[in-house]
Write a structure and sequence with these properties.
It contains eleven helices and four strands. A four-stranded antiparallel beta sheet has the order 2-3-1-4. Helix 6 (118-138) runs parallel beside helix 9, helix 8 runs antiparallel to helix 9 (183-205) and helix 10 (220-231) packs across helix 11. The two termini are 23 Å apart. It is elongated and about 75 Å long. It is an alpha+beta fold.
């Protein structure tokens, strides 16, 4: 009975595991690496870092990040209910509550607060948050905060895309961080934003890197046969026409892993030394001979 349930709901369970794992990584990145150095990278957590520092320096009160995260998200959810509906926000609400919980638990983890460790904190914080957000996005949800704020604002400004609104809101938070913490910390924060986005894209696009090769040659038929017999890979012929020569010929497309591409170069050169070969990176390959399509 349990096995049947797990099999039937396998995708749903996997997505919630992604959410748990992703929010845990984001919380560690923010609390352990970003907060001790006041690295503001946008979002509600960035605003929470600013509020926490102002509370300590001006009033001697420590305002936890998890509390600020909860404080700002509750009214945002209430406003979004009118525009997005309960079904849309259900999973985002769970994700936000999990992030709030993990932000609270992460406070018990020892932090890196030495000034000399600013670079390390920027890099590792960005890696943790980037990978964590990647898993959250793979579960088709968000951590709330500025994402919800952007969707609410978009209701009243339809001519502006949500992406632009989100960028504008995060830019305001980073600008506030600039006035509070100065240019040096802000620059490290911008570096963290870039690294975070790169790791998020990597998780979303996959880790199964490969190479795609386009081969243009008058001996395309012989090269195609050699590819299939010598490398055990398939090839696709794309009909094309040279603009200068006006000659019609087939362009061979083949996808291989990184190790096989060296063999392909030698094979093409041995058949036609004058062949034109283009090799490009492929982020993710799904299908026979590579990763299984789920």
């Amino acid at each position: 009975m349990l096995q049947e349930y797990l099999k039937e709901h396998r995708e749903g369970i996997k997505e919630y595991l992604y959410i748990i794992f992703g929010t845990a990584l984001v919380a560690i990145g923010v609390v352990v690496f970003f907060e001790p150095h006041n690295l503001v990278t946008g979002g509600v957590t960035g605003l929470a870092i600013i509020i926490a520092d102002l509370g300590r320096t001006m009033y001697g009160v420590t305002i936890p990040i998890w509390l600020t995260n909860l404080f700002f998200n509750i009214p945002l959810f209430l406003m979004a209910l009118r525009t997005k509906g309960k079904k849309f926000l259900a999973r985002t609400f769970i994700t936000t509550m999990l992030l709030t919980t993990f932000l609270s638990l992460a406070e018990f983890i020892p932090v890196i607060s030495e000034e000399s460790d600013l670079v390390i904190s920027t890099l590792f914080g960005a890696v943790f948050v980037g990978i964590g957000m990647g898993f959250v996005f793979r579960a088709q949800t968000t951590t709330g905060g500025t994402d919800i704020a952007a969707s609410v604002i978009h209701k009243y400004f339809r001519h502006i895309s949500i992406a632009k609104i989100l960028f504008f809101v995060d830019a305001i938070i980073i600008t506030i961080g600039f006035f509070v913490f100065g240019i040096r910390i802000t620059m490290y924060g911008i570096i963290a934003v870039y690294i975070t986005s790169r790791f998020t894209d990597t998780v979303l696009e996959g880790f199964d890197f490969a190479k795609a090769a386009f081969i243009i040659s008058d001996k395309h038929e012989e090269i195609s046969m050699r590819i299939m017999t010598d490398t055990e890979r398939g090839a696709t012929a794309i009909h094309a026409k040279g603009v200068y020569t006006q000659k019609e010929k087939d362009v061979i497309l083949v996808v291989m892993n990184k190790k096989e591409i060296i063999m392909l170069k030698e094979l093409v050169t041995s058949v036609d030394p004058r062949a034109f070969l283009i090799v490009t990176d492929v982020r993710e390959v799904l299908g026979e001979g590579f990763q299984r399509i789920v």
